[in-house]
Design goal:
- Its main location: membrane.
- The longest helix has 21 residues.
- The chain has a four-stranded mixed β-sheet. The chain has a two-stranded antiparallel ribbon with strand order 1-2.
- It has a domain of 105 residues: OmpA-like domain (60s Ribosomal Protein L30, Chain: A, 2-Layer Sandwich).
- Helix 3 links the parallel strand 4 and strand 5.
- The chain is α+β, with helices and mostly antiparallel strands.
- It contains four helices and six strands.
């Protein structure tokens, strides 16, 4: 049978090794658990699917010309694919987020990004998608996906992003 031994150093009580080693091991175990059981970050796009319905496709983005909220032919093609996916998944909802590049004032960009989101929602409604399945809004020049220092970067930032929403 083992006996406990207390160690004193110049009349001061020394902390046993297990007293600091055990909390350290617990912290490492918690860290390992959280790293292996991650959940998507808040606000990240979440694609949901059920056993009865196929997985919802990645819908991508619709891009716009400078200071315009008019859909391009490429944008219309993307939205036709989104409308087809929504028709195939009647319980699916869509979040529509409009953005601009940094050209223009903040109030102007907020209004323009809202107009872009509304243009996308309007086109989807024309394709037969119920407006109650669509949410979103404009965010101006917030959350750029590229630099605003180059023409190509600005073009990437003039967009509306489409995210499927779990219901």
């Amino acid at each position: 049978m083992a006996e406990r031994v207390k160690v004193y150093e110049e009349t001061k009580k020394v902390i046993p090794v297990w007293a600091w080693l055990l909390p350290l091991l617990l912290l490492l175990a918690l860290l390992a658990y959280f790293l292996t059981h991650r959940h998507p970050a808040d606000g990240a796009p979440v694609v949901s699917s059920t056993a009865a319905a196929p997985a919802f496709p990645d819908l991508g983005s619709v891009h716009f010309d400078t200071d315009k909220a008019t859909l391009t032919p490429e944008g219309q093609a993307t939205l036709q694919q989104a409308a087809a996916a929504m028709k195939a998944n009647p319980s699916a909802h869509l979040r529509i987020e409009g953005f601009t590049d940094s050209t223009g004032s903040a109030p102007h960009n907020a209004d323009l990004s809202e107009q872009r989101a509304l243009a996308v929602a309007g086109y989807l409604k024309e394709q037969g998608i119920d407006g109650g399945r669509l949410t979103g809004g404009g965010f101006g020049a917030q959350k750029p996906t590229d630099t605003n220092a180059t023409p190509n970067g600005k073009a990437d930032n003039r967009r509306v992003e489409l995210f499927s929403q779990p219901q």
